[in-house]
Amino acid sequence: MFWLVLLGAILTLLHVYMRLLTRRTRSMVSHLPTYKCLPFIGNMYKFFGDGQNAFNFLENLTTIMEERRQPFVIWIGQCCFIILSDPEDARMVANNFLEKPYFYNFARLWLKDGLVTAPGSIWKHNVKKFAVAFSGSMVDDFLPIFNEQSRKLQRKLEVEVNCEPFDLFEKYLAYTTLETICQTALGEHDVTETIVTKEYYAAFNGILELIFSRALNIFLHPEFVYRLTPGYKEFKRCVSVVQNVSDAVITTLSKFVSYLSTKIDLFFLENGEVKFKTFLDIILQMNDTDHTLTEEHIKAEIDTIILAGQETIATAINYIFLMLGCKPDVQQKLYKEIKEIFGESKRPVLKEDLSRLRYCEAIIYETLRLFPPVPGVLRQADRDIKLKSCTVPKGATCCISFWGSGHSKHIWGSDALQYKPERWLDPNVASMGATSLLTFSTGKRACIGKRYAVTLMKTVLVHSVREYEFVSEADKMELKIDIALRPISGHLLQVKSRSGVK
């Protein structure tokens, strides 16, 4: 009995001490909506469960934020998280805070100091040089690969015509976007045999699932605890499989390092042919002049660019096809636009076509608004900052909610929850949307691959929609969060031939 009383006294004193440490922060956010906090774990009990429970939690706090028109506060242990959905607040936070919270360290064994997980100082040192690989002129040079990969997907879909509904993401899209990013960003063309293997993709998905499951369990956050679990062993195994690919790519292409350094900025010759410079080419060339760029860092950037360029784009394209499948009027308008531009020809998409695909672009942005591939991003506050409805205290973590922003009636109007691509054809909405659509993030660490992603999506849609009609029940879709926003039901797609002939 004595020991129980002693333990209770120690825990009580520890709880009081921890409350005193966060007294200033609690006082500054006391007027914001939150859930009831439990000792030591805060609101973490709300996260217990699977990815579907996490999504339901996101929807619930989004509803509260919409009603109160205020940020929402979550306490994970003694760490304060302030959820933001207002685009102006999001830009203020993103432009002032470059550092990311400790959650991103869960991926450091895999991505190390790549652009996604790097400290602000390393990110600032590299981002401008890396962004060149995804500039407008470079993306235009990728169009032949985008067209070839889109034709390849279109040919694969031929076998699905008039068959049973299937999971487009799992069966085709994940591999299509992975092949594309390997060819455009890494210059690796023989990807089917060397990179896009079932073992690789299973390991890739395993990493995402393990990181997310760890994030949801506060007791696994300490590194020394996590290293004792079976999950850590599995995480190391999956990372090893993925990084073997990075090693293979670097070994294959490192012979170009000295060669690249003698060539002009945008092109180099290979076998007598002019070839665009890839993301990897730029990194290797940087290595000649920047000796702080180690081989480990190069591998980290390769893994990062595969994650960003493959997973998120495949997820976005999947949602686009699903929405087209349950919105036949939208799909018909897109088909009409494609026919007006391309006629009866099956020619590839050219640079000049991209700006004319206005309704296609509207569909892309509307889908990204309602179904962001990643629900949000985090930033660490290194000082107090005043927002419209609160002051973010130093030490708090700001979560910019793409989901909350995209579903806000205060931002998008009374029809915000309706799938309505036409809204983007209104010049006023399009102008507002350029700053209010947060899916590509905002501020200084926004996504450098926006143009790459939108161009690839347009190309895929042209090649597929002009050949096939798509049917889905996505209006009944249920979702979960697994780092990415993923469907768990209502996500099967059926393909029909527009000619009526299989």
UniProtKB/TrEMBL annotation:
<comment type="similarity">
    <text>Belongs to the cytochrome P450 family.</text>
</comment>
<dbReference type="GO" id="GO:0004497">
    <property type="term" value="F:monooxygenase activity"/>
</dbReference>
<dbReference type="InterPro" id="IPR001128">
    <property type="entry name" value="Cyt_P450"/>
</dbReference>
<keyword id="KW-0256">Endoplasmic reticulum</keyword>
<keyword id="KW-0472">Membrane</keyword>
<dbReference type="InterPro" id="IPR036396">
    <property type="entry name" value="Cyt_P450_sf"/>
</dbReference>
<dbReference type="Pfam" id="PF00067">
    <property type="entry name" value="p450"/>
</dbReference>
<keyword id="KW-0492">Microsome</keyword>
<comment type="function">
    <text>May be involved in the metabolism of insect hormones and in the breakdown of synthetic insecticides.</text>
</comment>
<keyword id="KW-0408">Iron</keyword>
<keyword id="KW-0349">Heme</keyword>
<dbReference type="GO" id="GO:0005506">
    <property type="term" value="F:iron ion binding"/>
</dbReference>
<dbReference type="InterPro" id="IPR002401">
    <property type="entry name" value="Cyt_P450_E_grp-I"/>
</dbReference>
<feature type="binding site" description="axial binding residue">
    <location>
        <position position="447"/>
    </location>
    <ligand>
        <name>heme</name>
    </ligand>
</feature>
<keyword id="KW-0560">Oxidoreductase</keyword>
<dbReference type="InterPro" id="IPR017972">
    <property type="entry name" value="Cyt_P450_CS"/>
</dbReference>
<keyword id="KW-0503">Monooxygenase</keyword>
<dbReference type="GO" id="GO:0020037">
    <property type="term" value="F:heme binding"/>
</dbReference>
<keyword id="KW-0479">Metal-binding</keyword>
<dbReference type="GO" id="GO:0005789">
    <property type="term" value="C:endoplasmic reticulum membrane"/>
</dbReference>
<dbReference type="GO" id="GO:0016705">
    <property type="term" value="F:oxidoreductase activity, acting on paired donors, with incorporation or reduction of molecular oxygen"/>
</dbReference>
<protein>
    <recommendedName>
        <fullName>Cytochrome P450</fullName>
    </recommendedName>
</protein>
<dbReference type="InterPro" id="IPR050196">
    <property type="entry name" value="Cytochrome_P450_Monoox"/>
</dbReference>
